Amino acid sequence: xxxxxxxxxxxxxxxxxxxxxxxxxxxxxxxxxxxxxxxxxxxxxxxxxxxxxxxxxxxxxxxxxxxxxxxxxxxxxxxxxxxxxxxxxxxxxxxxxxxxxxxxxxxxxxxxxxxxxxxxxxxxxxxxxxxxxxxxxxxxxxxxxxxxxxxxxxxxxxxxxxxxxxxxxxxxxxxxxxxxxxxxxxxxxxxxxxxxxxxxxxxxxxxxxxxxxxxxxxxxxxxxxxxxxxxxxxxxxxxxxxxxxxxxxxxxxxxxxxxxxxxxxxxxxxxxxxxxxxxxxxxxxxxxxxxxxxxxxxxxxxxxxxxxxxxxxxxxxxxxxxxxxxxxxxxxxxxxxxxxxxxxxxxxxxxxxxxxxxxxxxxxxxxxxxxxxxxxxxxxxxxxxxxxxxxxxxxxxxxxxxxxxxxxxxxxxxxxxxxxxxxxxxxxxxxxxxxxxxxxxxxxxxxxxxxxxxxxxxxxxxxxxxxxxxxxxxxxxxxxxxxxxxxxxxxxxx
Length: 494
Description:
The chain is α/β, with parallel strands linked by helices.
């Protein structure tokens, strides 16, 4: 094979439309050969600016061992020759162990995700790449601070630096250029408030902050962001109450807030008609679930678990015809389960456990043919389990434990072939301890009393009737001698 670094210019000129060069290294190749060929490719590519075909705007390296042939998995810096690629506009280094970028002034896209990049602070030299539009440093081992100079990247559209060990505060200059559309800083150790400029970033459509230690009043986190579609603020240290402004974001589609926030759920959430996913779990919300939530006709997921919500479940939730995931568990909800929930035909996950719901399990639930998981445990439900539950042919997980259910477990369970975990084994393998509060249940389940069959009931009734007949027959027979003795006694006395 001809050494590619020795190719003549005439050979290069036979590549009429060379735009992108991909270095796809075979991981099980010889380290020595791999290192030698990669170095040759680097030098060859750097030399192309001397020839007519000098525009190679894109370069992607997949798992390589480009600098240290003695390292078992590949490590070390990117060779300094890369700095000569003055026309390079896009550089992707997926799943490598590399981190050193030259003065690539034309670079617009830098993808260094899922490497083993480590070191203190994101290099401030990256902030000199003033043409940068995409910066992806996610899933690495970076720690330290985000440089304040990041504000110099006025053209930055996408910035994803999540899943690292970054600390400190978010720089005030983020979104200074007004072009930032997507920002992901989740799963780091960032602290402090969200910068004012970022709160009012009008170009922003997606902002993921979850899994940090950010602080501030939740009602002031977002200001004027008219294009915001998705924001996740969960697992931080925000405080305060939910603002009515959250329900008035015209384009908001997904909102996730889990920070021990207090207060009521604003009824204005019902005005966010584009909302498809709302997660307000793990807060201290009180009061009732607003009836206006039934207006969110595009809603796919409603997660309100682990709060202090009370009163009844609004029947208006049955208007959510696209709803797939409903989790209202671990609240203080009371009353009965609304029959109208059966009007959510796409529902596949329903969790109402750990509340104070009472009454019977609605027969209408059996209409939910896509329901895969149903958890009604730890409530005050009573009555029989309807045999019509066999309509839930997609059901895989069922938990009805710790209620006041009675009578027999329907034989219909035997026909539900998809059911592999019934009541967390409470029906098939659990002891009576696992069914505490359902003492009236009976069936062919370990720990439960067997149900009386119709034959045993009939025989029992016949035995009782026989005892009555025997008593009726024997009592007169025994009564005649007693009556005779009584007459004799009276005669002797007189």
